[in-house]
Amino acid sequence: MKITGIQVWQVDLPLTKPYWLSGGRLKFEQLDSTFLRIDTDQGLSGWGEGCPWGNTYLPAHGAGIRAALDLLAPALIGQDPLALDQINAVMDTVLPGHAYAKAALDIACWDLLGRASGLPLYCLLGACQADPVALNSSISTGTPDEMIALIRQASAAGYKTHSAKIGGSDIDLDIARMDAIANALPADEQVTFDVNRAWTPAAAVQVLNSSTARGWIEQPCQTLDQCLHVAKRVPQPIMLDECLLDFQDHLEAWKQGACEGVKVKPNRLGGLTRCRQVRDFGVSVGWSMHIEDVGGSVLADTVALHLAASTPSENRLASWLSHAHLAVDPCPGQGARNVEGFAQLPDTPGHGVEPDLGILGAPIARYD
Ligand code: MG
Q1: How far apart are the CA of 38 and the centre of ligand 1, in A?
Q2: Contacts of 367 (CB under 8 A, 6+ apart)
Q3: Any catalytic annotation for residue 165?
Q4: pLDDT tens digits for 129-158?
Q5: Measured between alpha carbons, how far is residue 174 from residues 142, 144, 220 in Å?
Q6: Known catalytic residue at 265
Q7: What domains appear along the chain, each with residue ranges and CATH number?
Q8: Exactly one of 102, 160, 165, 263 is catalytic; which is it?
Q9: Is 70 helix (H, G, I), strand (E, B) or coil?
Q10: Full-model pTM
């Protein structure tokens, strides 16, 4: 099979309401998503989506993806999309690094592998069948009462695991948030406190040794070394996310004993090929993993959940759905969606999501 053409669409994805991370330091109202379709000489096409969570969450932005595609897409014309390691080798030669900008192309090639083989992605990624994937909510930063109200809303929608966004310069407020949420949580529900890099190591050590909460603490500080410093001085288990951008980062985190779990996200790591490598490493070393994407529509969510569904349950925590926060849906009625706190993967070949061309509008670029 040969790649004969690649078309690209840009779509604004407004959120249903503003969303704050990192103690209110970072505000989000709209995502900038890039969809692409890879066409082949066999008449099959595959779809991918690249979508950072705004431009302040990771060293990534929507226009950066599209600038990189100007270099990457022409280099893939004539390549075999089913040779995924070769596809990634070509992309890494043309443009070292910039992993996030390669994710949509890699994902579209995985979609083609599924369509060509007649198998859903969860099967290609290691599972015979896909049980429903447990979902977690994402709770925007606010006062303790505001955050508890949002958790109660999420509980009513079926979510039993919550990612509560905290962090900031007010140490007493963070201790109050953690203790209030932990005390308000029903016995059968769990919470991860996601700090999104907001604390200094000193603040992290002070808050985490003052709070009585003992759930997961995610990305307390900016760097791996800062998080390692904290991990050695607090009683809670540590989950890492934004500071892990490639396999080497994960290897360092493991070697240094910086965490007990990680977030695994195709649009942070460069697609499913790199994500599967990290997932398999995480299984090997016994990590607990939330497997989900950085942002995007139900297409990005569904791709990530195929990887989650194919991961051993003892290494897997709940998955978040970005599309649940969006006011627009480019793929109506398709993909992995919340039903009482769980999502079922499509059994169709590939990832099983195809955007509505009427909603995408005209492509902004075409390579052939
Ligand atoms: Mg996080």
Answers
A1: 30
A2: 5, 6, 7, 8, 69, 73, 74, 77
A3: yes
A4: 989 999 999 998 889 999 999 999 999 999
A5: 10, 9, 12
A6: yes
A7: 3-118+356-367 (3.30.390.10), 123-343 (3.20.20.120)
A8: 165
A9: helix
A10: 0.96
Q: How far is the CA of 75 from the centre of ligand 1 (A)?
A: 33
pLDDT per residue over 71-108, tens digit each?
A: 999 999 999 999 999 999 999 999 999 999 999 999 99
Q: Which of 102, 160, 263, 265 is catalytic?
A: 265
- How many other C-beta atoms are found inside a 10 Å radius of the C-beta of residue 255? 9
Q: Two tokens at 30?
A: 């709209």
Query: Ligand 1 centre and the CA of 241: distance in Å?
Result: 5
Q: CB neighbours of 46 closer than 8 A, spacing ≥ 6?
A: 37, 38, 40, 81, 107, 108, 109, 110, 111, 112, 115, 350
- Furthest-apart CA pair in the chain: how many Å? 62
pLDDT, position 20: 80
Q: Are 365 and 69 in contact (CB under 8 A)?
A: yes
pLDDT tens per residue, range 19-31: 887 767 778 899 9
